[in-house]
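Subject: Interface between my chains keeps coming out wrong

I've been trying for a while to get a sensible model of this assembly. When I model each chain on its own everything looks fine, but I need the whole thing in one frame so I can look at the contacts. Pasting all components below, labels as-is. Any help appreciated, I'm running out of ideas.
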Amino acid sequence: MLELRFIRENIDLVKEKTSRRGMETTLLDKFADIDQQRLAILTEVEGLKNKRNVTSNEIAVLKRGSESEKKKAEPLIAEMKETSRRIKDLDARLNTIKEELHHIVMAIPNLCDDDVPVGMDDTDNIEIRKWGEKPTFSFTPKPHWELGEELDIISFEQAAKLSGARFALLKGFASKLDRALTNFMLDLHTQKHGYTEVLPPFLVNSASMTATGQLPKFEEDLFKIKDWDLYLIPTAEVPVTNIHRDETLSENDLPVKYTAYTPCFRSEAGSHGRDTRGLIRQHQFNKVELVKFTRPETSFSELESLLLEVETVLQMLELPYRVVTLCSGDLGFSAAKTYDIEVWLPGQNCYREISSCSNFLDFQARRGGIRYRPNGQKKSKLVHTLNGSGLAVGRTLLAVMENYQQKDGSIALPEILRPYFKSRFIPV
RNA sequence: GGAGAGGUGACCGAGUGGCUUAAGGUGCACGCCUGGAAAGCGUGUGUACGAGAGUACCGUGAGUUCGAAUCUCACCCUCUCCGCCA
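Reply #2:
Try treating it as a single job with all components included. I did that and got this:
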């Protein structure tokens, strides 16, 4: 959410920046009109309320006085009866307008940072660096879904029986590898990168979804629990960022850093026909997430260190990747700037997103009332929030399978996973 | 699911219709004091909207009233006990 006053005073800038994202600006034309109506009614009703407060005090004084003074209160009471009726009317109108305005403001995306390249879609994203040597094969490398079925460690068919399309059943070595990767990532982030591990609820209420920006605009992307105000989380970002909703943190505690392993649930509405094979796009997948709460001054440097921490995971797993800066049109609703890390997949001969690291500035903090008190100052300020996947476990698993596949169909494993997986490879 | 108790500022906690402009305390900040610190003393200390005067906010939403933190109703949440259950 952007500040009301900021939108009012910078309406052209807001229009320009939202159109960079490829969004309609008609909403913003409506904003100015409704905002003006709101201020007019607000002024009137506040004047009446002031009168009511003052007169009520007068009545109180008269009522404590003599009989004749008590009599004097009666016309005042009659007058206030009428005033109260008008206040009630105006308040009702004001509430309607406020709701309309709130709807508009909640539908305005964050302003993209000036560093963000202007573009339409992912083809306009800018590669900023590459790491690692793509593996060479003496044979044609297979996609992971073929490897998984041949080794009998992933079954899409059985998962379809249980749940339908876009689900997978990991078996034996695959489920063990998923667990090994998760533990490796959590250990790295807690022991080397200074994150506190949390295990949050996987169902959250609408207030939480609203603070991080999934609601009200993107409800169709979520799974909702029937008859409950609960949604399955699409990412750990939601419960973890909401840990400090409506709280004031101490500046000395910043940056606050959490890592969480959770399953993630996404409806994938609107992506029919895309990535239908394999583990790439599932309704349910596991992810290790990193979340930071920072001072405004340091959020961009914290974004850079977050990116490096995520890259470390891929480097330790010796998986080749590249980093891209998302262009304005590809940026998520709440983010001001995002780096995507894309891992090399030899079985599909392409790079695929495996992590997304974003700075949300105070956009989520304002929605969620997440503040801190700067040392030596009276007024609290909004924190900045950031998060990044460190990493999406399912996609890491398939990247390991494709990059480490052997001619005989077995899969070698990164050295770093030895303490977690115990054996060196997944046998045929 | 049943019974009971409760939800007040950064935190604790008083407050059952109008001298409440939310007491008091803790914490925090600044000042005095000190060789320096602690203690002590003093001052200040929320959020939103508004150019400002001001208005609103005591779990949420309605209601009663000239006037509600305070009374009524509904709902949400927390705690204790009982029941059921991994």
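Reply #3:
Confirming on my end. Chain A is about 40% helix and 20% strand.
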